[in-house]
Amino acid sequence: MSAGTVYDVIVVGAGSVGMSAGYHLAARGLRTLLLDAFDPPHTGGSHHGEPRLIRHVYGGGPHYVRLALRADALWRELETMTGERLLERSGVLNMSDHGEYSFEGRLADADREGVHYELLDAGEIAKRWPGFAPPPSYAGLYEPDAGYLFSERCVAAYRRQALAAGAELLTNTAALAIEPGPGGSGVKVKTSRGVFEAGGAIVSAGAWFKTLEPSVSLPVAPVRKVVGWFEADERLYAAGTLPGFTFGGLGGGYYGFPSIGGAGVKIGRHDGGQPWLPGEPLAPFGAHPDDEANLRRALESMLPGAAGRLLRGAACRYELSPDEQFIVAADPALPGVLLAGGFSGHGFKFASALGEALAVWAATDRPPADLLPFGLSRFAPPASAPIPS
Ligand SMILES: Cc1cc2nc3c(=O)[nH]c(=O)nc-3n(C[C@H](O)[C@H](O)[C@H](O)COP(=O)(O)OP(=O)(O)OC[C@H]3O[C@@H](n4cnc5c(N)ncnc54)[C@H](O)[C@@H]3O)c2cc1C
Fold first, then answer.
1. CB within 6 Å of ligand 1 — which residues?
2. Is the whole model's pTM more than 0.85, yes or no?
3. Same domain for 16 and 159?
4. Mean pLDDT calculated for residue range 163-181
5. Is there a contact between 204 and 11 (Cβ–Cβ < 8 Å)?
6. Which of 158, 260, 302, 340 could be 204's S-S partner, Cβ–Cβ 3.0 to 4.6 Å?
7. Which domain, by its residues, includes 121?
8. How far is the CA of 89 from the centre of ligand 1 (A)?
């Protein structure tokens, strides 16, 4: 860090999306400063307790499918650059009660983008993967090219690549406020280690956006989430035998992974959780009476041979936007500042592509088309009706 350097872009929050953006900015030759309140990868954000599912059949619009495919290609590129295994193409099986939720709504976009999938009934699922025990009313959508990402390894890999491409990184340095730069041009980022200036900024603070108010504000609600690893019959549930999975049932939505290297089947619940206030301690796994019991009940109902001893538990944070869709937008009050957050518990898979798209936006001052649906205007209050005279 040389005194008085004015950067092209400062990235505030070098986690999943920010570290990727840092690499893509530096690779484009932009003078890039990455700031993080911790030392990424770390357990203070949303990316620890790997792995994370990556799927390509997506609800929510065709832009999600295109971004997922681009993200997949970029994760492979990162693997090639680093020589590291980051993505395991295990396949992912999504299961739901056909009477309550049908996959059909997601298929048109997947078909258009050429994503491979198979539709299976409960009998076919149990025959192919005897570890799953879906009730007869369940159906499955299987994506053979989907899988899981080692999220902490991914963040570490982008960190190394970003530094190799010339980015600078300040760890354990929290941004405190973001303001217009001198004379109103560019930005000034006030931190626990001084003030830094740049032409623009990307703010990707995950579950911690609230700590940047009032200079930056984004409607992101942080939520405590837990995941558990349970002892499983390795003949049925080991990686290489069982795919990644999601299922609805027991009034909730669950996702999970095969037992990787004997670590046990990992399972988490997508909905629910407890509100968490940034800065407060995050209650560890087991602090809430239902942490283990809820996950165990889900396993007993759908993967009965994987409901063994709890081997490990972890608590992490979701960063929910009001509609659980992403927010990637120009800050309406701070010119030159891009906000990226609200990834709502499904953002990791996209981090490589989101980082690239943010870098393109910062470099060209034009938002890539697939980011447009993530704008803030969708939360604008409806125009008030004219008052009748
Ligand atoms: C249990 C769990 C399971 C999940 N499963 C999946 C899955 O299977 N598939 C999937 O795609 N997604 C999944 N997700 C979601 C995914 O992990 C997140 O959406 C994603 O990691 C969010 O990325 P981010 O960059 O916004 O946040 P983070 O990776 O948390 O990065 C934010 C960074 O900002 C830093 N920061 C915050 N405030 C400041 C500040 N003031 N100054 C400087 N730095 C700051 C933090 O230290 C952090 O490093 C899961 C999440 C959890 C918790």
1. 12-18, 35-38, 40, 44-47, 49, 52-53, 174-175, 204-206, 208, 211-212, 225, 227, 255, 268, 316-319, 341, 343, 345-349
2. yes
3. yes
4. 97
5. yes
6. 340
7. 92-144+222-320
8. 22
